[in-house]
Specification:
Length: 364
């Protein structure tokens, strides 16, 4: 299956399906000016999937060398960005070469940003290996790192030239990482496709058992929706913010939990989705039963769904609102939220009373 991201001058394909890694050379060759690639990955992926990926390239005459970074969100910072850029420069990676991000969203965001700033822009390919990366982070060109001030605060829009989403790789993902990625899948249904959300409600058990047909379907539908929004608004002047449903809450929770294993990004998004619907219901925008419908599905999938599911203590509501102050959607110091008029009907709201946000956080 192929989903096209039809950006003028920078169009690219997202290839989706099992077994793509084995045919990686065929997909990469049209983009290569010389037969070598520089791969950035993490230690888990290096142990599980790098040998097969490397062999698929080298047996077709493409030289491939990898930088192996530590797994986890803490890698997405200045230290490993600098290490990655220096490693690429040591290997004399040129503007016309390809950097390959082989891994989850952490590797994709970091390696994509390294490629964006290396020699003022080197082309890169995303080979997403987590559900989250296949449905979301490998598509659309948001690259970057976290800083002490917050999530993804330094980065660039830099589109890949190709995305190879081998759904066969998802079999080795831990249950927790798989469900974290599923948080972003639910987001798509809630933001713009009620029928897709209904399908998820009805077919959650096939997704949970990672039935190949169900995986291909959720990756394809998510990528179609993301591609369509990104083509409409690449740099988030307007509609792209819809992809941020649940994220104003999620990013504050990730900051409050120190970007650690305590709360993964997709887990924070799942909790944030419930809170975004709470806020929408409190403001009279969506039916009162929608927040519980959202949480019922998350809980049926055995996911974190409420603030009380976050392990350990959280700061109070005022502190969480303060952490939201770094949100990139803010304008003139005023927060903006993605809210919903119902399941599948999200929109960007400018004038959200802080009192309502505080109430939602106190009761969520
Ligand atoms: N750029 C975007 O548009 C965008 C969108 C959504 C999320 N993100 C970012 O993505 C990041 C989260 O991504 P993630 O959830 O993929 O996390 P991740 O990259 O940390 O991967 C999660 C874990 O899975 C392991 N892993 C990866 N592939 C595996 C496989 N096939 N089998 C077994 N283990 C595997 C990794 O080593 C890691 O331990 C966050 O930093 C988030 O901000 C970016
Ligand atoms: O691609 C987008 O646009 C998104 O908002 C997708 C989000 O799932 C993702 O977490 C993104 O990195 C958040 O972006 P940010 O600009 O709010 O940091
Ligand atoms: Zn996200």
């Amino acid at each position: 299956m192929t989903v096209r991201v039809d950006l003028p001058g920078r169009a690219y394909d997202i290839e989706i399906g099992p077994g793509l890694i084995d045919r990686a050379a065929d997909h990469l060759r049209p983009h290569l000016r010389r037969p070598r690639v520089a791969v950035v990955t993490d230690a888990h992926v290096a142990a599980l999937h790098w040998p097969a990926f490397r062999d698929a390239l080298t047996r077709e005459g493409i030289e491939a060398e990898a930088l192996v970074l530590p797994p986890g969100e803490a890698t997405k910072g200045w230290g490993h960005l600098s290490r990655t850029v220096e490693w690429l420069l040591e290997r004399q990676v040129e503007r016309r070469d390809l950097v390959v991000a082989l891994g989850g969203g952490v590797i994709g965001d970091l390696a994509g940003f390294a490629a964006a700033i290396l020699r003022r822009g080197v082309r890169f390919v995303q080979v997403p290996t987590t559900l989250l990366a296949q449905v979301d982070s490998s598509v659309g060109g948001k690259t970057g790192i976290n800083t002490a001030h917050g999530k993804n605060l330094v980065g660039s829009f830099h589109q890949p030239v190709l995305v190879l989403a081998d759904t066969g790789l998802l079999g080795t993902l831990s249950e927790r990482d798989f469900l974290s990625g599923y948080g972003e899948v639910v987001k798509y249904g809630l933001l713009g496709d009620a029928a897709f959300f209904e399908w998820l409600e009805a077919n959650g058990s096939s997704v949970a058992t990672r039935a190949p047909g169900a995986l291909d379907r959720i990756v394809r539908r998510s990528c179609e929706m993301k591609a369509e929004i990104v083509v409409r608004d690449e740099t988030e002047e307007g509609d792209r913010a819809l992809l941020n449903l649940g994220h104003t809450f999620a990013h504050a929770l990730e900051a409050a939990t120190g970007y650690s294993d305590r709360l993964l990004h997709g887990e924070a998004v799942a909790v944030g989705l419930g809170l975004a619907f709470d806020l929408s219901a409190r403001l009279g925008l969506c039916p009162q039963e929608d927040p519980s419908r959202v949480r019922t599905h998350l809980q049926a999938m055995r996911m974190k769904a409420t603030l009380s599911d976050v392990p350990g203590d959280l700061p109070g509501a005022e502190e969480l609102v303060r952490l939201m102050g770094q949100d990139k959607k803010a304008v003139g110091g005023k927060l903006r939220f993605v809210l919903a008029r119902g399941i599948g009907r999200a929109f960007v709201a400018d004038d959200v009373p802080t009192g309502a946000v505080l109430e939602v956080l106190r009761n969520g």
